[in-house]
Design goal:
Layout lengths: L5 E5 L10 H16 L6 E5 L2 E5 L6 H8 L7 E8 L4 H15 L6 E8 L8 H15 L4 E2 L6 E7 L3 E4 L3 E2 L11 E5 L5 H11 L3 E8 L6 H18 L2 E7 L1 H10 L5 H19 L5 E2 L12 H8 L6 E2 L7 H10 L3 H4 L6 H4 L11 H9 L5 H10 L2 E5 L1
Parallel strand pairs: 5-6, 5-7, 10-11, 10-13, 11-12, 13-14
Antiparallel strand pairs: 1-3, 1-4, 2-3, 4-8, 4-9, 7-8, 12-15
The chain binds adenosine-5'-triphosphate and magnesium ion.
Protein name: Probable tRNA sulfurtransferase
Main location: cytoplasm
Subcellular location: Cytoplasm
């Protein structure tokens, strides 16, 4: 059983939000509750500009730490030992026992940081620091005080209970999901789009996703891979809806009617149109893609301009200036990489031309799309009607 009975949550940017600060704090508390719910009955509460998590007796420390590391809005968090008796004798003993348990060699430089949130406590913060330091030096002969650069910062906060902590675990940063609207992620089975979704969620945005499936050209396993990726993203972004659109007939029709070197661009324009339909339906305020300048033919400046032309909502492309290796690094950190590199074909690779245009001419693209007039509306309607919606928890 862990000696830590609580966590002190530190947040950075949401502290800057002026009058809206409480909204961000509330969203942060809610997201922490969501993250810890499957792990037991935790109490999450705000107190004097701090967020605390109180743990149940039988909680799993490692699991809890892992869950907190995924809650956006947390800049860092500290496992805390709580002391119910705050009289001086009990408190000094508890701090000494903490040192003994955490640092069995008891050989380091330290500084005591005291915070007296309970102003009725009879000893002032500077005196707590001084007296606690003296007590520890007496109990552990190898300790030394270093007020400028201590190896261990020993924090003692006195509230209705006293809190002791000295370890700070980095959180993911960002803003609590749900504090900043919702966007629709175009989620393929590749490396880039899951990272793009993660990055926008990190700025406090809730995420739904749309995947274009092209059976029988893309297999059930390709679809399952996208579902797996959505689950991985939802570990950070919370619950999401995944819209699986059957794109086969639209792709085949484009393939039949349009010049093959323009296939990818025209197909991508239809993906954007369909994604926007579901985005509006779900009250999203933007689209998200994993596009990165120059990565492939459909991601040159000209191609992106051609794709973007059909969008009426903002399109967020958080990876636009990222090198592949930097994207891979994030994919590895958020544990989507191994899933993304499973070798199941996606719908773009099957219909891709040998020599796709890299500088599409918008007039020509619009002209080619006119060749779709006869049947495209009906095909779009069917695609929208037959969408499969998967709830990702
Ligand atoms: P990714 O690694 O995300 O698949 P990519 O480098 O393979 O990206 P493209 O295939 O050109 O690049 O796709 C660019 C973006 O378009 C993707 O990041 C994704 O947002 C979206 N996209 C591509 N294919 C699909 C699909 N089948 N379903 C949903 N979105 C897609
Ligand atoms: Mg792809």
């Amino acid at each position: 059983m862990s000696m830590f009975k609580a966590f002190l949550i530190k947040y950075a940017e949401i502290g800057l939000k002026g009058n809206n600060r409480y909204l961000f704090e509330n969203a942060l508390c809610d997201r922490i509750k969501d993250a810890l719910k499957p792990l037991g009955t935790f109490r999450v509460f705000k107190e004097q500009g701090r967020v605390f998590v109180e743990c149940p007796e039988d909680y799993d420390y490692e699991e809890t730490v892992e869950a907190l590391k995924r809650v956006f809005g947390i800049s860092s968090f500290c496992p805390v030992v709580t002391v119910a008796d705050t009289d001086w004798e009990s408190l000094t003993k508890a701090v000494g026992d903490y040192v003994e348990a955490m640092y069995p060699d008891a050989d380091f430089t330290f500084k005591v940081f005291a915070k007296r949130a309970d102003k009725n406590y009879p000893i002032s913060s500077p005196d707590i620091c001084g007296m606690m330091g003296a007590y520890l030096l007496g109990r552990f002969p190898n300790l030394k005080v270093d007020v400028h650069n201590p190896e261990v910062s020993l924090n003692v906060e006195i509230r209705t209970k006293a809190y002791i902590y000295s370890v700070e675990i980095p959180g993911p940063g960002g803003m609590p999901v749900g504090s900043n609207g919702k966007a629709m992620l175009l989620l393929s089975g590749g490396i880039d789009s899951p990272v793009a979704g993660y990055m926008i969620a990190k700025r406090g945005v809730s995420v739904d996703a749309v995947y274009f499936h092209a059976p029988p050209y893309t297999s059930e396993r390709a679809k399952q891979k996208v579902i797996d990726l959505a689950k991985k993203i939802s570990r950070y972004a919370g619950r999401m809806k995944l819209f699986v659109v059957n794109f086969t007939d639209i792709q085949l029709y484009i393939y039949d009617q349009c010049p093959h070197d323009e296939l990818t661009i025209i197909m991508r324009r239809y993906m954007m149109r369909i994604a926007e339909h579901f985005a509006k339906q779900e009250n999203c305020l933007g689209l998200i893609t994993g596009e990165s300048l120059g990565q492939v033919a459909s991601q040159t400046m000209q191609s992106l301009a051609a794709t973007n032309e059909v969008c009426t909502m903002p399109v967020y492309r958080p990876l636009i200036a990222f090198d592949k290796k930097d994207i891979v690094e994030i994919a590895e950190t958020i544990d989507t990489y191994e899933t993304s590199i499973q070798p199941y074909e996606d719908c773009c690779t099957i219909f891709v031309a040998k020599h796709p245009v890299t500088k599409p001419n918008l007039k020509k693209i619009r002209h080619s799309e006119r060749k779709l007039e006869e049947k495209i509306d009906e095909l779009l309607e069917t695609a929208l009607k037959t969408v499969e919606i998967i709830e990702i928890e």
